[in-house]
Amino acid sequence: MRFYEELNDFLPLARRKVRFIHEFQRRASIKDMIEALGVPHTEIDLILVNGQSVDFSHIVRDGDHISVYPLFEALDIQPLVRVRPHPLRVSRFVLDVHLGKLARYLRLLGFDTLYRNDYEDAELARLASTERRILLTRDRDLLKRAVVTHGYYVRAVEPRRQVEEVVARLDLYRAIQPLQRCARCNGLLAAAPKQRVWERLPPETRRYIETFWECGECGHLYWEGSHMPHIRRFIDGLRARAGNDMPNTDSVAEPNP
After folding, report:
1. Would 164 be classed as within a structural domain?
2. 152 shares its domain with 196
3. What are the C-alpha distances in Å from 118 to residues 51, 100, 140?
4. In three state form, how does the secondary structure of 232-255 look?
5. Edge-to-edge strands of the sheet including 151-153?
6. Bigger pLDDT: 204 or 86?
7. Does the keyword Cytoplasm apply (predicted)?
8. Which one is predicted more confidently, 180 or 85?
9. Angle made by CA atoms 39, 45, 47, in degrees to the nearest 5
10. Which of 28, 143, 223, 240 is the most buried (most CB within 10 A)?
11. Angle at Cα 225 formed by Cα 189 and Cα 223, nearest 5°?
12. Residue pair 32/58 in contact by the 8 Å Cβ criterion
């Protein structure tokens, strides 16, 4: 067997980036064998057995030469059998309980992101399946659940590195629409007339700020504030990594304290 690129992250050091022999005793599908080695099926895009592409149901036979590849970004493998369903047209997410800060970052960038700190694994898998969301997690066993078709194991630990990793790995640069969603609850933001929200504003904000946004779900108020240069630098940094034109960040909002 041989695993390629970032799939090696899931293997012991001795089996990374090399061919190795894997012994087995019972009849097994290629999917079951790969996941028994620790690699979630959601990370895989192509499997070659003796040079021929196969799907997850392929039964492994003694003497097979197996090559396993992650999602392809630059190589056209259209004629081959992709083991994953077609990519989701819209990138929507559900995150496990350990990724709360990543959820806020993704919402800041405008992505529909479900998160609660009390989601059970079964509920996460159900939401990913029924609502066609990409499951982001640091629990590889969660990604092995059969109902999960789109998921990603987040390697980074620090939240800012996590969002940079997810945006790069899933090529989300062009989908960024800064601050269209509430960082707290994921609701959509809408313009809020100053007169209507006057009583809810701190004195200094009443004096200097004219433009406000309100979450349609939880009612939280947003406006451009002192943290805006930091937010712009962060978003522009993502833009620079991609080398693509991104939505303008001049008119985005900051939550009130």
Report:
1. yes
2. no
3. 45, 11, 18
4. HHHHHHHHHHHCCCCCCCCCCCEE
5. 113-114, 93-95, 134-137, 151-153
6. 204
7. no
8. 180
9. 80
10. 143
11. 25
12. no
Residue 90 and residue 129 in contact, taking contact as beta carbons nearer than 8 Å = no
Cα Rg of the chain, angstroms: 22
Instruction: Give me the number of domains the chain comprises.
Output: 3
Any domain includes 75: no
Beta-carbon contacts of 102 under 8 Å, excluding residues fewer than 6 positions away, are: 95, 136, 154, 159, 162, 163, 166
- Residue with token string 């700020």: 209
Which region among 22-31, 76-85, 166-175 has the lowest average model confidence (pLDDT)? 76-85
| 109 phi, psi to nearest 5 deg | -85, 0
Structure tokens at 127: 């939401």
pLDDT in tens, 125-146: 999 999 999 999 999 999 999 9
One-letter identity of residue 92? R
Q: Residue ranges of the alpha helices (H) in the chain?
A: 30-36, 100-108, 121-130, 140-143, 159-169, 194-197, 203-208, 228-242
Looking at residue 218, its amino acid is C
**Domain span including residue 39:** 2-70
What's the rounded mean pLDDT across residues 85-91? 65
